[in-house]
Amino acid sequence: MKTRKLLMIPGPTPVARSIQDQMGRETVAFGDPAFVKDFKELIEDLKVMFKCSGEVFVLAGTGTMGMETAIANVTKKDDNVLIVSNGFFGDRFVDLCSRKGLNVDVLSCEWGDTVPVEKIREKLKEKNYAAMTVTHVDTSTGVCAPVAEIGEMMKEFPDTIYIVDGVCATAGEPEYVDDMGIDILFTGSQKAFGVAPGLTMLWASKKALDRRKSLGTIPEFYIDFEKWLPIMNDPSKYFGTPAVNLIWALKESVRLMKEEGLENRYARHKKYAKAMQSALEALGFKVLAKEGYRAVTLSNLIYPEGTDDAKFRGLLAEEGIMVAGGLAAYAGKMFRLGHMGNIDKHDLVSVIATIERAAYRAGMPVELGKGVAVVQKSLVE
Fold first, then answer.
1. Which of 11, 53, 182, 338 would give a disulfide with 191, using CB separation of 3.0 to 4.6 Å?
2. pLDDT tens digits, residue range 279-311?
3. Phi and psi angles of residue 336, each rounded to the nearest 5 degrees, phi first
4. What is the pTM of this model?
């Protein structure tokens, strides 16, 4: 009998059947009136749901393209950029910005921790920064940055564009563009939205759009706000071909989110994360992220001493559970478990039961049934 696979990596995440069905529809022309209507409704829903009075861009590309789009539209050569990094993906901004001839300063911290808001404030006082980047949830560490608190502090620095990388956070962790003082928020379709990879969604405040206008012609072509604004305002127009079926899939994802309620979705992610992290700690794993800064979209679990990473993850894969390995200094020392998007409590219980069996078979000192009992209890509280 073929084992059913359950994708529990930090992304892509499992895709619900109704979303899959949208991807399987017969493709139509991007100018088809019914598709144009769907695209316009999707853009408006994304603006309203995430409280953005500026503009929303839905573009064919991954979250990495979102990073580049954010930087390209609000900075010019020799501008100063502050990168607040809580891990591997925060650090990616360094290479990206350096290639664009920007002057880069980095504030980083020990993996598992987050950069204090006061430290960010003091750094911003040193010089005029055109932009600052913060990764809301860094999948290398499972750390969640206090983006709302940072946004409140950013009122003291009105000339700096506040960019939030929401790739592993948006639709799982609370994010509201206007309310949190965010100037650019971007994410990818394959994480907490529960859609297949291939779309970048980016929200831009009026301040960010004004900055783009002030730059004149920029070197980038495909990711230029000015090229896409006419299409976002009227999807019947053409600049680049939209990913028709993925846009339908995203529209279905948004429908499911509206049906659940965004605040309810945030609460569900929080509950599921607490249940999973408590169960995994009961089995002897250690959560890398410190208490108070743990993401709700994934957990990064350090193995008990002597655990063979490849063997453990191989045993999980045999039973159909796919998890990710650790990065950088934590390669071979931990695994990364996603629990976001459209998974349900049955998935969580199955995953913990499978982790118990794999850990036991890998020689870890686990008590079979203990993790399942903890997750079950957490889910009914």
1. 11
2. 999 999 999 999 999 999 999 999 999 999 999
3. -115, 130
4. 0.97
User: DSSP characters for 162-210?
Assistant: EEEE-TTTBTTB---TTTTT-SEEEEETTSTT---S-EEEEEE-HHHHH
Q: What is the mean pLDDT of the chain?
A: 97
Alpha-carbon distance of 363 to 228, in angstroms, equals 55
Tallying the residues shown for the chain, one arrives at 381
Residue 346 neighbours by CB distance under 10 Å: 9
Residue with tokens 């055109």: 130
- Other CB atoms within 10 Å distance of the CB of residue 65: 18
**Is residue 1's pLDDT more than 90?**
no
- The closest of 120, 137, 232 to 175, measured between CA atoms, is 137
Rounded-to-integer distance, Cα 231 and Cα 131, Å: 26
Which residue has tokens 């250690």?
Answer: 286
Phi, psi of 283 (to 5 degrees): -90, -5
Q: Residue 2 has what pLDDT?
A: 64
Rounded to the nearest 10 degrees, the angle between the axes of helix 244-260 and helix 33-49 is 40
pLDDT class for 5, splitting at 50, 70, 90? confident
Residue 271, both tokens: 């509950």
Distance CA 72, CA 13 (A): 28
Other CB atoms within 10 A of residue 26 CB: 6
At 336, is the secondary structure helix, strand, or coil?
strand
CA dist 166 and 66 (Å) reads 10
